[in-house]
Write a structure and sequence with these properties.
This is Glycosyl transferase family 1 domain-containing protein. It comes from marine sediment metagenome. The chain is 41% helix and 15% strand. It has 286 residues and is an alpha/beta fold. It folds into 2 domains: 114 residues, Glycogen Phosphorylase B (Rossmann fold); 155 residues, Glycogen Phosphorylase B (Rossmann fold, 3-Layer(aba) Sandwich). It has a 6-stranded parallel beta sheet, sandwiched between helices. Strands 1-2-3-4 form a 4-stranded parallel beta sheet. Helix 8 links the parallel strand 6 and strand 7. The protein is globular.
């Protein structure tokens, strides 16, 4: 992220030399200009979540923030995002939650911020039995009830550790499989699963392409989003597009997407037993 921010001013100026801009749109953390404004064109920024919220959520030590100085929880990126938000002519927040946090954290006037929810393409979530059987063989899945997680496996915000603990409890009453889809270092998650003696009930896919991801949604019996923080929650929309039951934690923007017992089930973040019971209810319906 830091390298991108450092090279952005030069790239913008070079592009401006070829075609004058009417509006410049920045996507979240990107504004790293020594001047308040690089060009005369109005600046619009889309904010997905606040870096300061991530820091509050993860509570990293000062040492780890210094060691990871160029990362999201380091010492530089929060400053860049603050500058980007402060000097924007207009701000797009991807949820009411994100808008509220921008106002609360940086004192931005509410009328300067528009909420525009993320969207997805609803096409491509239906597959033939043959297509699904093929991907089941590729992923080495059996006929057990299938629970799905999608997200970076080593991102603490995504709450995979919470799901593993809930899954452990559910396995006492049902033999099921947890399919974990997403990039990132798997070692910590695997170690935790091994310590709880549930690793044999888990399949890690790593990164998958969009088509395979949609097939994973189509295959699952229930999708779970156990996040500790969500500025929006795109995977929830994807699971809903695949017409799958969705269970998620009551954090961030998730309550804007899910109305409890209407289009999904929302549980308290720290209610691992409650999460397990809801998961069990859906898996037993297979």
């Amino acid at each position: 992220a830091l390298q991108f921010c450092l090279h952005l001013p030069k790239a913008v100026k070079e592009a401006e030399n070829e075609n004058k801009f009417d509006i410049i749109h920045f996507n979240d953390v990107s504004y790293w200009f020594l001047k308040k404004r690089l060009l005369k064109a109005p600046n619009v920024v889309t904010v997905h979540h606040l870096v300061k919220d991530t820091i509050r959520c993860l509570n990293p030590s000062l040492f780890s923030r210094i060691r990871n100085i160029s990362g999201e929880t380091g010492l530089i990126i929060p400053f860049i995002q603050k500058r980007c938000i402060k000097y924007a002519d207009r701000i797009i927040a991807v949820s009411k939650f994100t808008k509220k946090q921008i106002i609360k954290t940086y004192g931005i006037l509410p009328e300067k911020i528009d909420v525009v929810y993320n969207g997805i393409n609803l096409d491509g979530y239906s597959f033939t039995e043959k297509e699904l059987e093929e991907v089941k063989k590729e992923l080495n899945l059996d006929e057990k009830p299938l629970l799905l997680f999608v997200g970076r496996v080593n991102d603490q915000r995504k709450g995979l550790d919470i799901l593993l603990k809930a899954f452990k409890i559910a396995l006492v009453k049902i033999d099921a499989t947890l399919l974990i889809v997403g990039s990132g270092d798997q070692r910590k998650a695997r170690t935790l699963a091994q310590s709880m003696e549930i690793l044999e009930n888990i399949v890690f896919t790593g990164f998958v392409d969009d088509l395979t991801l949609k097939k994973c949604y189509a295959l699952c019996d229930v999708y779970v989003c156990p996040s500790r923080l969500e500025g929006f929650g795109l995977t929830i929309l994807e699971a809903m597009a695949a017409r799958k039951p969705v269970v998620a934690t009551d954090v961030g923007a998730i309550p804007e997407l899910l109305k409890n017992e209407e289009n999904g089930i929302v549980v308290d973040l720290n209610d691992i037993d409650g999460l397990s019971n809801v998961i069990l209810t859906f898996l037993q319906k297979k």
